[in-house]
Each structure stands twice: as structure tokens, then as C-alpha cells.
Amino acid sequence: xxxxxxxxxxxxxxxxxxxxxxxxxxxxxxxxxxxxxxxxxxxxxxxxxxxxxxxxxxxxxxxxxxxxxxxxxxxxxxxxxxxxxxxxxxxxxxxxxxxxxxxxxxxxxxxxxxxxxxxxxxxxxxxxxxxxxxxxxxxxxxxxxxxxxxxxxxxxxxxxxxxxxxxxxxxxxxxxxxxxxxxxxxxxxxxxxxxxxxxxxxxxxxxxxxxxxxxxxxxxxx
Length: 222
What we know:
The chain is α/β, with parallel strands linked by helices and 222 residues long. It has two domains: 4-19 and 88-219, 3-Layer(aba) Sandwich (Rossmann fold), CATH 3.40.50.1000; 21-82, Orthogonal Bundle (DNA polymerase, domain 1), CATH 1.10.150. Helices cover 43% and strands 13% of the residues. The chain has helices at 21-34, 43-47, 54-60, 68-82, 93-100, 114-123, 147-156, 171-180, 194-197, 208-219; strands at residues 8-11, 18-19, 88-89, 105-109, 132-134, 164-168, 183-187, 204-205. The strands form two sheets. It has a six-stranded parallel sheet. A two-stranded antiparallel sheet has the order 2-3. Helix 1 (21-34) packs across helix 4 (68-82), helix 3 (54-60) crosses helix 4 (68-82) and helix 5 runs parallel beside helix 10 (208-219). The longest helix is centred in the middle third of the chain and has 15 residues, at 68-82.
């Protein structure tokens, strides 16, 4: 039987533990208006890209590559103001983190910057469960590159292995896990769908709590 120090669970944020769709959309529209960009696509086009870095999102929404960072700056200026008010903790997320902490060491691996992630985790009173957080600022290559997972493992002083799990709602999380040679669980409470997620992981659950229960069952009898 494994002890707590031998099992690691890394959580994605958006779509896995929190729902910040309202804040994200508001900040994109603010950036478009602030930069005088005529955005003619619908919100669903923005939502499809959630999980990718902001510069990638803006470029894929039609912004010229040499201007994307101006849009990112406008986005962040608005997001800083609205993120807490327009973000909610997903159902069962707090219970998932609390349960995971009873048998594993926890971390957060997100494409959101830590500057905004940490206040949200503190606001929802789950920050103290985590031993590390790796955001966009800490890496050169975000998910689906394995670098964020490697950085989290380095901070936790462990080697990536099959006793390290990432729980995430998009293929980016699961691809990163495969490339890092760790385990993964896809969840259906966010932005990915079952058909897409099951392409990259054999473990698909409804939400983060079900994912944590699945991981626990792998090591401990019910």
C-alpha cells in the first residue's frame, strides 16, 4: 500500500475546479473594445479555446500576431478586476481537494497565471491544500507540453511516474500527462467532451470528486 508521500495529484483549474467562463468572456470583450477590434465571432469560439495561453487564443480569434500582447495586457487589466466576482467553485470541487489531501500530495498545474490563480484559490478557501502551483508565468512551454508537469514535480521533489496523476477537463491536460509519462483522469465538468478526452486517457469521470475517488480506489480498498 502506498503512503501519502508516494501519490501525487495535480489539478487543472478552469473547468476542473473552477468556472471562470463569465470572467474570461468579459475580459476578452473588454480587450477587443479596448483595442478597437471588430470581433464578429460568437462566444462559443472563445470558449472552444479556453485552456490555451491567451496569446494563442487571441491569435486564433483573428488578432495579428504582432499585436496579441497588447490584447493580453488589456485582458489582464479587466480580469484582475472581475475574476473573483465572476468565478465560481465547481460543484464537488472543494470536497475533491479535501479528499485528495487525505491520501496524496497536491499541486495545481494551470495555463492561468499564478498572479490570478492564487487569489482565487484563497478566496474559495482551498489554497492551503496545495503544496505547489505552476502557472503560465513559470514555464516557457504551457500545456500540452509536459514542462508544467515537470516543473510541478521538481517543486515537489519527485520524479514523474505513474503514481503522479493530473486531473483535467481538456485534451491539453491529458496530452501533457502522456508526454510526461504520468497518469491522468479526464473530467466532463469543463470544456472537453467525452469522445475527445477518451482519446488521450482511459480514465474519464463526471467531475473532480469522482476523479479523486477513482484514484483512491486504485490504492486503497473501499
